[in-house]
Amino acid sequence: MLFFLETVISGLMAGVMYSLVALGFVLIFKASGIFNFAQGVFALFAGLALYDFIAEDGWFYDLFGFALPVWLGIIATMGVMVIVAWLVERLVLRHLVNQEPIILFMSTIGLAYFLEGVGDILFGSDVKPLDIGLPQGASDYLLDNYNLYVEKLEVVAAVVAAVLVIVLAIFFQKTRIGRALRAVADDHQAALSVGISLRTIWVIVWSVSGFVALVAGIMWGSKSGIQFSLSLIALKALPVLILGGFTSVPGAIIGGLIIGVGEKVAEVYAGPFVGGAIENWFAYMLALVFLLIRPQGLFGEKIIERV
Amino acid sequence: MTYERTIGDTILAVDQISLSFGGVKALSDISFSVREHEVFAIIGPNGAGKSSMLNCINGFYHPQEGTITFKGKTRRQVRPSEAARDGIARTFQNIALFSGMSTLDNIMTGRNTKMNKGLFWQAIRVGPAEKEEMAHRAVVEKVIDFLEIEAIRKTAVGTLPYGLQKRVELGRALAAEPDLLLLDEPMAGMNLEEKQDMCRFILDVNDEFGTTIVLIEHDMGVVMDISDRVVVLDYGKKLAEGTPDEVRTNQDVIDAYLGVSHGEDE
């Protein structure tokens, strides 16, 4: 029983990580109807940039002879992500207004590979251990009292994710910009007609998802180092989105948790019978089932087309 | 016209506007002017360039030649968000609402250009933003009241019937308290009762708020009833401009509508 609980908890924590990435997708999808394939690369890019700002072997240190303190590094990285967002709008999106979603999607695939290349050139391709002082190791309290093995970092990640969701929910529901974001997602022309500037909104939403990517990058980086395989967790976020619904912020969280727990439990309990490696395909399998029985996901908007 | 209004000076002057897409000329050399507090109709057969004209006025299209003067500012190209800030609101031929949002939120977006308190204050809903939000809500409630859509204020607009959606769209435009209201076929696809309602709202808006209205409409009866002046377009050219009576008896206009002048079916 205890072992099962540990499995579930570790699944939940892995799920939080997926959720963080999925969240970035949902934000951009909600506000612009674009599936941003580059979200995983955003997380990678943010992680790399942060590392180089704060580590003693980063190029910031080489250039100026000192590394930034962590908090300043995070702010600087956020600045980098805003610049990236601005460039994406200026160089890509602006020229694709009113195009088919598939064209916008293709452009984000291009963006993903471009950013990955730029990241490689700027920061190098080694695995970089990111240490921003988050607690590491197992929680002694849980281990001593309940004999449970829980990583402290994962608890931190869960708290961060929760705070992030609350902040985003308030931002989307309560502010003028949040309303404008939802408006842009629904209808570009109508949004323009009430005086919403599409360009501003896009820069904002890509910046916000850059921020979410930064948080995801920090968490993944602290856990397993910043490496280029990080861009592949974008693919893991896909089943999470199918499960949770592409337009739902809570959906991204719940979807991530279900996938995280599901694959851990499946791996541990069903793995031995099929020779293991269930973790690699379980999420996609689950997504497939969902596509068949509930294509809008758990929390997505059901699309009813009037004819 | 049974009610009294004072038609003012020119608020919108369209001067020699030409617009083409590739080789296709959508508008050539169009000029007309709209006076303050007027109901002004743009009519013409399908493909005459009526919607293109509206799109030029609110900045969706950028004409290659000519200028548009609105409230004394003369420009050839204007961005939609600038046009909105200057006081131009519009509705669309095919309804363009934010279908995921409620009626209230949709109409609230109309207040977009009027909101300017900081993001932080809005998020925590205290201080100046609280007051601002309340003030905007009051305007929105007035619009909802005016259009008699209290019952659907919390309903997601995507689920509303067509006629009501049109009304919500009008509400969103009204919430901006525009000086110039552009209506692209406000009565298209409506049944008789809905049309009468919409006519009444348009006239009431014009009457009570003094809003200048430029509208496109196919229903001739409606156009002739509610407009002060009419401009007729055909194949991107101006055929006639004047009061409904003048236009009705204009030979070019009659020909265009009967298809004589082009020798084709229209």
Overview of the structural elements:
The complex is a heterodimer of chains A (307) and B (266). Chain A has 13 helices and no strands. Chain A is mainly α. Chain A is globular and about 60 Å long. Chain B has 266 residues and is α/β, with parallel strands linked by helices. Chain B has a domain of 159 residues: P-loop containing nucleotide triphosphate hydrolases (Rossmann fold, 3-Layer(aba) Sandwich), CATH 3.40.50. Chain B contains ten helices and ten strands. Chain B is globular. Chains A and B meet through helix 7, helix 8 and helix 9 of A and helix 2, helix 3 and helix 4 of B.
Features:
heterodimer; A: 307 residues; ABC transporter involved in vitamin B12 uptake, BtuC; 74% helix; globular; B: 266 residues; alpha/beta; Rossmann fold; six-stranded mixed β-sheet; four-stranded antiparallel β-sheet; 10 helices; 38% helix
Can you tell me the CATH architecture of chain A? Answer: Orthogonal Bundle
- Separate helix tally of chain A: 13
CATH H-tier superfamily of the domain at 10-87 and 178-258 in chain B: P-loop containing nucleotide triphosphate hydrolases
Shape of chain B: globular
Q: Give the overall silhouette of chain A.
A: globular
Provide the fold topology.
The complex is a heterodimer of chains A (307) and B (266).
Chain A: H1 2-32, H2 39-54, H3 59-64, H4 70-91, H5 101-123, H6 140-146, H7 152-174, H8 176-186, H9 188-193, H10 198-224, H11 233-244, H12 249-274, H13 278-293
Chain B: E1 10-21, E2 24-35, E3 39-43, H1 50-57, E4 65-70, E5 73-75, H2 80-86, E6 88-90, H3 103-109, H4 119-124, H5 127-146, H6 162-175, E7 180-184, H7 192-209, E8 212-216, H8 220-226, E9 229-234, E10 237-242, H9 244-248, H10 251-258
Parallel strand pairs in B: 3-8, 3-9, 6-7, 7-8
Antiparallel strand pairs in B: 1-2, 1-4, 4-5, 9-10
Helix pairs in contact in B: 3-6, 5-6
